[in-house]
Design a protein that fits this description.
Length: 77
């Protein structure tokens, strides 16, 4: 399994948590150790979205996939 497939696999593991709060997460791309995602639904407008990315999703991805250095939320305007 390549790095992108592993990233998507881990994101799919956290997705039910976000869906239960009315949101979701979409994988955008992986580049130079950085995973770009977009929070959607209720999570897109949540004031805690960026901290959710850093505290939860980034923590999980960096611990399970050493190549991942950071996760950045692409805000859809």
């Amino acid at each position: 399994m390549d790095t992108i497939d592993r990233i998507k696999y881990v994101i799919d593991k956290v997705r039910p948590f976000l869906i239960s709060d009315g949101g979701d997460i979409e994988f955008i791309k992986y580049e130079n150790g950085i995973v770009f995602v977009a929070l959607t639904g209720a999570c897109a407008n949540c004031e805690y979205g960026d901290s959710e990315i850093k505290d939860t999703i980034e923590s999980i991805l960096t611990s399970e996939i050493p190549e991942v250095l950071e996760v950045i939320n692409i805000v859809n305007e």
